[in-house]
Fold each of these.
Amino acid sequence: GPFRKLMKSRMADSEDLLLNKAKEDQTGNRIVKVNSGKHYFCGYCAAITNIAVTFPIQKVLFRQQLYGVRTRDAICQLQKDGIRNLYRGILPPLMQKSTTLALMFGLYEDLSSVLLRHISAPEIFARSLAAVLAGTTEAVLTPFERVQTLLQDYKHHDKFTNTYQAFRVLREHGAREYYRGLVPILLRNGPSNALFFGLRGPIKQCLPEATTYSTHLINDFICGGVLGAMLGFMFFPVNVVKARMQSQIGGEFQSFSTVFMKIWVERDRKLTHLFRGAHLNYHRSLISWGIINATYEFLLKLL
C-alpha cells in the first residue's frame, strides 16, 4: 500500500545518507553532513525501550556479578524481595542509560564529523577516536550507575528506599563518593564503543540483503544483538570489578587491580567463577542491544 511505499522510500533515502556521510567535495576535502539532533533523540528512545523490557534480567545478573551466586539462587533472592522490589532501582538506569545512549550515538556522529573535517588521518582512525571520546564523555554520568548498584544490592535495602535517599547518603561522604568505580567504567566505555561502531557495518553487510521493512528490522536486531553479546562477554570481568567497587559506601578507595585480585582469590582463582553470570549477561546483551539497535535504526529511518 501507500504506507509501505513511503516507508521503503524513506528507508532508501536514509541508507543513502548514512552510506555517503563521508565523501569528497569539489576541492578534495572530506565533508560530513551534520544532522545529529535526531541521533540523540533516537538513542534516548532506544534506551528507554530496552530498560523497560530487560530490567528484571539485569537485576538477576547484578546479583551474580556482586556475590558470585548461581542463576537459580539469584532468582530466589529476587522472589524473596517480592514483586514490589522487582523494579526497585529502575529510575537511575532510566535516567543514566537513556542519557548515555543519547550521548553515545549523538556524540559519535558529531565528533566523527568534526574529526573527519579537521584531521588527515584515515577515516577508520577518526571514527574510532570519536567512539572512544564519546564513551569517555558518558562516564560523567557515573553517579547514576553508582546509585543503581546500591539500590539493587539487598544489603542496602534498609539504608534507603529510593534514588533521592541514596544520593543523599553518598553526599555525606563527599563528591568523590559519587564516582567510585570510575576507572572500570572508563576501561569499558571507550573500547566497547569503538568496537561497536567499527564492527556494526561489517556485520550487517554479512547478513542477507534486506529488501523489506521487516527484514531491515530483523537485520538491525541481529547486528546489534551479536555485537552486544560479544562485547558484554568480553568486558564481563570489568563489570564484576565495577559492581564490587560501587557496592561499597565510604572507606578506602581501592585500585582496580587490588579489587580484581581480591575477587580472584575469593573465587578460588577459577576463571569460570569469575565469569559466573556471563551466560545470562550474554543472553541479556543479545536481547538488549538487539532492541537498542533495531529501535535506533527504526526511529532514524522514520525521522
Amino acid sequence: MSFIKVDPSSDFSFHNLPYGIFSTDNNPKRRVGVAIGDQILDLSVIMSMFRGPLLSQHQDVFDQPTLNAFMALGCESWREARSTVQGLLSANESALRDDVSLRSRALVHQSAATMHLPADIGDYTDFYSSRDHATNVGTMFRGKENALMPNWLRLPVGYHGRASSVVVSRTPIRRPSGQMRPDQTKPPVFGPSKQLDIELEMAFFVGGGNQLGEPIPIEKAHEHIFGMVLMNDWSARDIQAWEYVPLGPFLGKNFGTTISPWVIPMEALLPFAEPNAIQDPEPLPYLQHLDPFTFNINLSVSLKGQDMADAATICKTNFKYMYWTMKQQLTHHTVNGCNVRPGDLLASGTISGPDPESFGSMLELSWRGSKNIDLGGGETRTFLRDGDQVTIKGYCQGDGYRVGFGPCAGTILPALQH
C-alpha cells in the first residue's frame, strides 16, 4: 500500500497508477504525472530516481509534454517504470515518504492541475467490435436477417479516423453541420445535425510500434499495447447515414472525439482479464490467441441537460461484451505491413451489451429515434440537445479498491451559423 491515503471509492488506487500529462497555474509547462488518490506524482521532479537498467539512460522521457517518448521505449521499460513508481509510493519506502521538501515539489493536488491530451496522436483508427452493437445497427438499417455483414465474424472491421479532432475530457464539442437527406423522396439539405449522438467506447494507445512492411504477430501484440482510456466518439447520425455509402464514416464522425486524460497501464488491468468471447466461426490462424484479453470494466454514461438538476444515467454496460480483442485488432491492423507508431490510438467501437440498458449509443437506446429515453423529471431525449453534458465513467472493482479511468466528459455547443 501507499503512504498516500486513498479512498476505497477513488478511481486512482495504488493498484492503478495511470499516466497523464498535466500543467498547473504556477508551472504551465506540460509534464508527465501519475495519479494516486486525489494527488498527482510529478515524474519530472523525480525523474533522477528512475535508476533501473533500462530507464537510467532515458530519464528525460518523464520531462516531456507528451507520453510518446516513454511509449516508444517498449514494454520492458514500462514495467520497470511502474515498479519504480510503486516502490517510491510504497508505505515501506522512505525516499519520498520522509523527504518533506521533495514531497512538496513532487505531489500536486489534482484539483490544481489542468489535464491535457496524453499523447501526440499521429493516427487514430476506430473499430466496430461489439457484436451486440453491430447487430442492433444492422437490424435497424438492413433487417434482422442481414444484420451482420458477411465479413463481420471473420475480421475486426474498422476505419481510419481523424486524429486532429481527438480532444481531452471537458473540451466542449460544437454541433456539426453538413449534408443530410431526412426525406428520401427529396434532394439532400444542409444544416446543423438533428441526430447528434454519443458512442461509448474505449481505446488503447500503441507503444513500441513496427516497421513498414513488418506485421505485428498475435503472439507479440500485447507488447505494443501501452494502456487504455475511455472514449466518446461523437456521431452525427443523419450526416453519417447520407454520406457513408460507399466508403464509410467521414464528416459525421470527424468533428470531435473525446478521450479521458489518464492512461491506465495494461498491467493494472490484467487482474481483471476475462475469457475472450466465443468466436464462431473460428478466426483465421493469424487472429487466434487463447490467453484472456478482454476485461471486466464497468462502464456507464450519464446525461445532464441545461435544465436538469442532476445527471441521469442512460447506459450501464461492460467492456467484457466485446467480440474482437485488442490483440486481434492490432494484429489485423498490421497484418498487411501497415506501420503503427507510439501514440497511435485504436478504439473499440461502440460497446453495447445484450440488454437495452446496456446499449452504448442513443441510436440504439432510442431505436433510431422511435422511442424516448427517459431522463426523469419529465426530461426525455432521442438524440442530444445543445447544452447537454455527457459523462462516461469506467472502473474495475477489486477487493476494497478500484482501478478507474476518471471521467470522459463533453458538453454540446450550438452549431455555428453558415
